[in-house]
Specification:
20% helix; 242 residues; three-stranded antiparallel beta sheet; seven-stranded antiparallel beta sheet; single chain; alpha+beta
């Protein structure tokens, strides 16, 4: 009996050693079979929270500086409903009062209408609380808020032929409160009721200390390139309302 136990134990040790050798062969340094896939299904590195939602890609870095004078700043818009204030822009911008949707508490627009009533697009700034359906709890809440708001914007306005180029994706702070900015440029080729076939979209999500983050959306159509510097004016002007 002792002989049988000894033989069995030796067999188990030999099998375990073979498994270790086999596993080690697959952990050698070499080409990553999943290179280019995003997000990778793996544990997050130390100090980086695991994602619980689908990002558009790796963060694209700081918001670019759009060259040019931009519009004149004529004051500030104090949005106490969303807990944030930002630059009020002069002509051709106009402050929204009666045309705000239920999702937004303040905003500004430039009407880009050309030729007829069907072919238009607004340059716009819209501010409001995060849509509850886009709220992802956890340490990456603000990044998810900005990126998912941008994805929702694309989904509601563009067909599957839309092409996206990411311009920015990074953390920021507003008066010491954390936030995230994402920016991208969309283009499409199908015939739609738009004056131009694309625009630059910027989304900033800020933790204002309220139940839901505040979201600032800025849209500049490609037929209004002179307004691109207003993106930088607006983002730099953000402050919390106490």
């Amino acid at each position: 009996m002792k002989t049988l136990i000894a033989v069995g134990a030796a067999f188990i040790l030999a099998v375990a050693a073979a498994i270790v050798v086999t596993l080690n062969r697959h952990t050698d340094t070499g080409p990553d079979a999943f290179a280019g896939a995003y997000p990778l299904v793996k544990a997050a590195p130390t100090g980086v929270p695991a994602l619980t939602w689908q990002p558009t890609g790796a963060p694209a870095g700081p918001l670019p500086v759009f060259r040019g004078p931009g519009s004149r700043v004529t004051g500030r818009i104090i949005d106490r409903s969303s807990g944030i204030s930002y630059a009020r822009l002069g002509t051709p911008w106009r402050r929204l009062t009666s045309r705000l949707s239920s999702e937004h508490s303040s905003g500004q627009e430039v009407d880009g209408k050309v030729n007829d009533y069907k072919h238009f697009w607004y340059a716009a700034v819209y501010v409001g609380p995060l849509d509850p359906k886009l709220d992802v709890a956890g340490p990456q809440r603000l990044r998810a808020a900005a990126e998912l708001t941008g994805q929702d914007f694309v989904k509601s306005l563009y067909s599957t032929d839309g092409r996206r180029k990411d311009l920015a994706g990074t953390a920021l702070t507003v008066d010491g409160h954390p936030g995230w900015v994402t920016a991208f440029r969309m283009a499409h080729t199908v015939d739609t009721d738009r004056v131009q076939k694309g625009q630059t979209e910027v989304v900033v999500a800020v933790d204002t200390g309220r139940r839901a983050p505040t979201v600032v959306e800025i849209t500049i159509p490609v037929n209004k390139p002179q307004l691109l510097p207003d993106i930088n004016h607006l983002v730099r002007s953000l402050h919390l309302v106490r």
